[in-house]
Amino acid sequence: MATLVKTPSDTWKALIRKTGWPTAAKTFRTERDAEDWSRRIEDEMVRGAYIQRSGSERMTLEAALKRYLSDITPTQKPTTQRGETSKAKKLIEHLGKYSLAALSAEIIAGYPPIKKR
């Protein structure tokens, strides 16, 4: 069973601690939203289908690509660096504001946007 706590900022925090699973927590504006989320997550844990999404919900594609460009790209050949930088800039321009969790097949299939003539 989840623990629901009202925070000082008048929001509700749902906290789930289940043996064998990582602790899951999320904050909501209403108690009802916190209850619904905690029920859904606990059900996924029971079925063995739970995937922790908090990191992918917070990180945007832009942030992930910029980190890749700063950490990985400098270790590659100069021609590869130029190509990856160019591709990353195009992706950031069109899809950068999406969180990693929000990216779906439909969104990705719409890239690159079809140019009207």
Describe the structure.
The protein is an alpha+beta fold. It folds into two domains: 3-52; 58-109. It contains five helices and three strands. It has helices at residues 31-47, 54-58, 61-71, 78-95, 105-109; strands at 3-6, 12-16, 24-28. A hairpin with a 7-residue loop joins strand 2 (12-16) and strand 3.
Give the SSE layout.
Layout: E1 3-6, E2 12-16, E3 24-28, H1 31-47, H2 54-58, H3 61-71, H4 78-95, H5 105-109
Antiparallel strand pairs: 1-2, 2-3
Helix pairs in contact: 3-4
Q: List the strand order in the largest sheet.
A: 1-2-3
Average pLDDT rating: 92
| Largest β-sheet summary | 3 strands, antiparallel
Distance between the terminal alpha carbons, to the nearest Å? 57 Å
Portion of residues within helices: 40-55%
What distinguishing features does this structure have?
117 residues; 5 helices
Quick summary:
Helices cover 48% and strands 12% of the residues.
